[in-house]
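hey
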């Protein structure tokens, strides 16, 4: 089967690891343990085709972000750019991550999904859906609201990214 490298980026504590864990094992933990860098592998079927996904869960916390992120980005076939709907700051950080991806790939036509995570925290929302959608459009990316906590749209997010990679 075809093998794709997927890189998950975004600010600290937005839920990158929680989304990865939900996708891989359908589990969720309430505790927060900042990531240094983790890699996983999963076989999936999308539109009747088998794919092997190598998923890199990167560090969002400034102190753990490293020059190695650039290496992952160059090797990435597709990217999940995550922010939390309950944190305007995490949304504002996303433009930097997107630019880093575009620079690493030397292109502005890169398969990217913008994941607006923590959609279960509607009463704490700081970023409107329209704001996220607009940014996705400007980034030539697919926009989706997710919740690692409830599992909402986590599989869909990965399916859309695989479709984008296949189309690219
Ligand atoms: P770094 O590894 O530091 O970059 O953070 P991260 O983006 O991997 O965040 P992580 O997945 O560790 O989640 C941070 C905190 O948010 C944890 O306490 C999670 O339980 C919580 N969390 C993650 N996703 C969700 C979600 O969809 N909804 C809610 N309510 N909480 C979430
Ligand atoms: Mg993490």
């Amino acid at each position: 089967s075809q093998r794709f490298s997927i890189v998950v980026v975004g600010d600290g504590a937005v839920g990158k690891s929680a989304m990865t864990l939900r996708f891989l094992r359908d589990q969720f933990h309430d505790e927060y343990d900042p990531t240094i860098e983790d890699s996983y592998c999963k076989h999936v079927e999308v539109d009747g085709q088998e794919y092997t996904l190598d998923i890199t869960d990167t560090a969002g916390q400034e102190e753990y972000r490293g020059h190695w992120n650039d290496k992952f980005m160059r090797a990435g076939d597709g990217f999940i750019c995550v922010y939390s709907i309950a944190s305007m700051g995490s949304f504002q950080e996303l433009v930097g991550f997107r630019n880093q991806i575009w620079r690493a790939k030397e292109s502005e036509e890169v398969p990217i999904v913008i994941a607006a995570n923590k959609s279960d925290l509607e009463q704490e929302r700081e970023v409107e859906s329209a704001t996220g959608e607009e940014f996705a459009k400007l980034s030539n990316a697919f926009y989706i609201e997710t919740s690692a906590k409830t599992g909402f749209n986590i599989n869909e997010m990965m399916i859309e990214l695989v479709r984008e990679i296949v189309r690219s």
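The two ends are 17 Å apart (CA to CA). The CA atoms of residues 91 and 167 lie 27 Å apart.
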